[in-house]
Design brief:
binds tryptophan, 13 helices, mainly alpha, two-stranded parallel ribbon, Tyrosyl-Transfer RNA Synthetase, 2 domains, binds adenosine monophosphate
């Protein structure tokens, strides 16, 4: 069986360190060992209101960010989800095989819909089924994502299993989640109990991949810690969410072993550690930022990557759809 990866990120706002450490950095690490498809999930983005002009620019910028982080357009297919109509088509068919009870358990919908559940769109509710379609359409074997997407991936596996059982054939590949690295859930720099997120009102809560060196340094300096000193071992991390988060970011970006960090910074105040952390962030993010800016000036190049990626993705998507339609008994003359 072909080892194949499918993953995606929404084209809203600026991508941040959570997107990088939870997803893109791992895509780069895995890309040589798999056939890869990386989409920009613009259909997921419109589950909440978007400004059309801004959305299409964000989609291009997300493609530029994938490339700037080290995804190889020669090997991987990079494309906007909406360019391959089969995503929506498969979603409908899968929706007809997904019990409401399964969707009612999804915590992300509960968080995003908030108290005004009746005002949320059907698209927001069906969001995880579209994500399942993204994955199952390409018979992806592995899906590298951040920890927050674990529940959605479980659902994708359940939907594939239910479909296969219903039609008594192994048509859809059951995907494996790949939640990797030292920072699978990057937390807000202002509050260690909430996830670093595009939608947080506080800009200081996250580091964007487009932040200047100075912005990165300031955000790390102001990042919340506590009145204690830097821990000397894992026992001293108990209940210290903000400290754990900064440590995880440092480990993920530097590749340094945790014991070495405890030995070097344990018992010292946070400012020494923060200086090192800021340096590591600047070293990693600075070149990505510069490359995003360069690529955004090369619109034709970006569009050519999108066209090439879309064409490659469509071939695979059409193969699966042909089998799925035949299996379900839908016309396909
Ligand atoms: P999104 O920005 O919601 O489209 O997320 C795209 C990818 O980034 C998914 O694989 C998420 O799991 C990952 N991701 C988003 N926020 C974080 C975070 N704070 N920590 C780790 N991974 C994240
Ligand atoms: N729901 C994911 C998120 O917000 C994005 C996404 C959509 C995705 N389709 C996907 C991730 C398919 C992996 C595979 O983080």
């Amino acid at each position: 069986m072909t080892k194949r990866i499918l993953s995606g990120i929404q084209p809203t706002g600026n991508l941040h360190l959570g997107n990088y450490l939870g997803a893109i950095k791992n895509w780069v690490a895995l890309q040589n060992d798999y056939e890869c498809l990386f989409c920009v999930v613009d259909l997921h983005a419109i589950t909440v209101p978007q400004d059309p002009i801004h959305l299409i620019q964000s989609t291009r910028e997300t493609v530029a960010t994938y490339l700037a982080c080290g995804i190889s357009a020669d090997d991987a297919s990079i494309f906007p989800q909406s360019m391959v109509a089969e995503h929506s088509e498969l979603m409908w068919i899968l929706a007809c095989h997904t019990p409401l009870g399964w969707l009612n358990r999804m915590t992300q919908f509960k968080e995003k819909a908030g108290k005004q559940k009746d005002q949320a769109s059907m698209g927001l509710y069906a969001y995880p089924v579209l994500m399942a379609a993204d994955i199952l359409l390409y018979q992806a074997t592995d899906v590298p994502v951040g920890e927050d997407q674990k529940q959605h991936l479980e659902l994708a596996r359940d939907i594939a299993g239910a479909f296969n059982r219903h039609y008594k054939k192994d048509l859809l590949t059951i995907p494996e989640p790949r939640i990797m690295g030292a920072a699978t859930r990057v937390m807000s720099l202002r509050d260690g109990s909430s996830k670093m997120s595009k939608s947080d009102v506080s800009d200081a809560s996250r580091i964007h991949l487009k932040d200047s060196d100075d912005e990165i340094i300031q955000k790390i300096k102001k990042a919340r810690t506590d009145s204690g000193s830097f821990p000397s071992d894992s026992k001293e991390l108990d209940g210290r969410l903000e400290v754990q988060n900064l440590l995880n970011i440092y480990l993920a970006l530097s590749g340094v072993d945790v014991q070495t960090v405890y030995a070097e910074f344990g018992g010292r105040n946070f400012s020494d550690f923060k200086n090192h952390l800021a340096d590591v962030c600047v070293e990693n993010i600075g070149p990505i930022r510069e490359k995003i800016h360069r690529l955004m000036d090369e619109q034709q190049y970006l569009d050519s990557i999108i066209q090439k990626g879309t064409a490659k993705a469509k071939v695979l998507a059409q193969d699966t759809m042909r089998d799925v339609k035949k299996t379900v008994g839908l016309c396909n003359f």
